[in-house]
Amino acid sequence: MTEAEKRWLAAICEHGCICCKALGRPWTPAEPHHILMGGRRMGEMFTLPLCPGHHRSGRYDDEFVSRHPYRHRWVKMFGVELDLLVKLQEEIGVA
Fold first, then answer.
1. pTM
2. How far from 71 is each of 3, 8, 35, 38, 43, CA to CA, in Å?
3. How many angstroms from the chain centroid is the CA of residue 9?
4. What is the pLDDT of residue 95?
């Protein structure tokens, strides 16, 4: 992993969950979610910060829509991952 990738992953985790932020919730600890293209990870620079509830909890309820396994519902609620990545890059100051 390159130094730039390490800095990016640290920055997004410090940023907190983008879904919680979009919902107006306070800062929530996040883990990297790798964006896929054709079923394969695009790389460390193509990651979004998601809390476990929005990432991999498997929840679909009033509190959380989990990216895994509810991708279509998650996208409908929060947007296309690559668009979110561009917005995140602007917020962090990478764009």
1. 0.92
2. 30, 24, 11, 14, 19
3. 11
4. 55
Q: How far is CA 2 from the centre of its chain?
A: 20
Residue 93: pLDDT band (50, 70, 90) is confident
Provide the residue type at 2 as one letter.
T
Q: How far is it, in rounded angstroms, from Cα 28 to Cα 4?
A: 24
CA nearest to 13, candidates 90, 88, 94, 95: 88
pLDDT, tens digit, for every residue of 33-89?
999 999 899 999 999 999 999 999 999 999 999 999 999 999 999 999 999 999 999
Say what the pLDDT of residue 23 is. 96
DSSP, res 23: T
Distance CA 6, CA 48 (A): 14
Q: For residue 90, how far is the Cα from the chain centroid?
A: 14
